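Z., the sequence and structure:
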Amino acid sequence: MILVSSRLINTHWLLGDLEKAAETSERFVKQNPDNLYAHILKGHTLSYLDPEGAIAAYGKALEHATTKTERGDVLVSRSNALLIAGKIEKALADAEEASQIDSKDYVAAINMSIALKRMGRKEDAYRIVKETLPIIKDSPYNRACAYAVLEEKEKMLEELEAAIKSDKIYKVNAKYDPDFADFREDPDFCKLLSK
């Protein structure tokens, strides 16, 4: 059931129909109100469409997280929604807690860096990302996110292009992901997403 719902949601997502993805995830939560992953899926689908709704969904997911790993995963996702909602201090707190649960969680490190950068602490943000980049080996998308934080445009575009070639869903993610906020109006970034 989870796999089928996840694939259906991803299909809507890939087609750019975020509303349909949100409707599907809402139905899944109603059918499985005690399922951690149902709430996580709902949070993911709402992150770019309704960040406050995503934050609430991740809050419900935390109620069903039974392991530290599950808690860390939810906190990382919620920190992303908090960044989108402009709740920087709370995003930083969630990312820091997730990083304490798993010190190798590079998404938590990237989210911490984005929050720190928005708080005017660029040197701290850059240090964290530079320390994290060597462990991001298997994910061109997350490497692109890291390079975006560092404002290394050419490397960011190269990694993002590789990510999109591996899975078109990254094109949709990049349109909304807070990691790329500084590049939303950049012509090269826009061109890559319009291919």
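The longest helix spans residues 68-85. Residues 183 and 189 are 6 Å apart (CA to CA).

Let me know what you think.
H.
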